[in-house]
Known about the structure:
Layout: H1 11-19, H2 27-37, E1 42-45, H3 52-69, E2 82-85, H4 89-106, E3 110-113, H5 119-125, E4 132-135, H6 137-145, E5 156-159, H7 162-167, H8 171-180, E6 186-191, H9 196-205, E7 210-213, E8 224-230, H10 237-244, E9 251-255, H11 259-271, E10 277-279, H12 285-296, E11 302-305, E12 318-323, H13 330-337, E13 347-353, H14 358-378, E14 383-385
Parallel strand pairs: 1-6, 1-7, 2-4, 2-5, 3-4, 5-6, 8-13, 8-14, 9-11, 9-12, 10-11, 12-13
Helix pairs in contact: 1-4, 2-3, 3-4, 6-8
Amino acid sequence: xxxxxxxxxxxxxxxxxxxxxxxxxxxxxxxxxxxxxxxxxxxxxxxxxxxxxxxxxxxxxxxxxxxxxxxxxxxxxxxxxxxxxxxxxxxxxxxxxxxxxxxxxxxxxxxxxxxxxxxxxxxxxxxxxxxxxxxxxxxxxxxxxxxxxxxxxxxxxxxxxxxxxxxxxxxxxxxxxxxxxxxxxxxxxxxxxxxxxxxxxxxxxxxxxxxxxxxxxxxxxxxxxxxxxxxxxxxxxxxxxxxxxxxxxxxxxxxxxxxxxxxxxxxxxxxxxxxxxxxxxxxxxxxxxxxxxxxxxxxxxxxxxxxxxxxxxxxxxxxxxxxxxxxxxxxxxxxxxxxxxxxxxxxxxxxxxxxxxxxxxxxxxxxxxxxxxxxxxxxxxxxxxx
Length: 386
């Protein structure tokens, strides 16, 4: 399939795609959208920045609008027909925002029920009739237990960023949510990586689903340039200052492995006169959201984070990712570098490498080789520097 126009989507959705100049689907969209439109349950594994949200949003809106056009509009309050379960509030807000352009033409309603908000805000989100609910697991279950929400009319349930959801220990909540939905509901799950916990989830709940893997899953994208910088004598900060003197287009995310490293680096940058904001766990949620907004809006060019920022966040203007401390796991590395070079845009990754990082660095060549082979077959070329 070479064009969204080839899909049997409702005219209102096609109109919205044209308005946003979206003509050609990504690989995961080209595979997942037809399967979901056909009513099949799907497990989609694709690299970050590959367009997974639209891969399920279009089929959801098509199916629910079709029901309305058939004379079956939603009439009961607190009974959504589609639920998208996400691991974090930030990702939930991002997903709800991705739906919005397509709800203007379809006249469908999307609500968000996310952790970190007050119970009064949560209750207001559920007022009136609506078709789609984007929710974090804990808040969703609380509203069900409070009698404010029922899942008896759910036609499609989506688990987004499943690997991160399992990292957060949400498996019991996910099982409970699936159990409360009708047995004939359609299921979809999307993930950038498939760690053992996600493999178990697939085996237990998605045994009959169609598994779709993009060619780029477990690889970096071909528009990414990677540079390795050796850290000598543990002196990272002077290396960083020289690097920051080289301006790039867009913002920079600096990754550390621990909250302590994150705060220490932010303090060093502040003392050296480099404006930055912190985005990590175990900090005031209002401050964290404010910091992310400042970075997203371009008010601040440097975001210092732990792996919290590596999963699911889509900030369009990220031109560079710096692994100030490399992670221990390849999956975490792939998530981090996926914050840049998204949706076909170029991006730069700079890795600060010590002798202790040798086991991970040795895997980079395998990843780049796989990416290069895939890119060559498509006529593109990944970039790498030593």
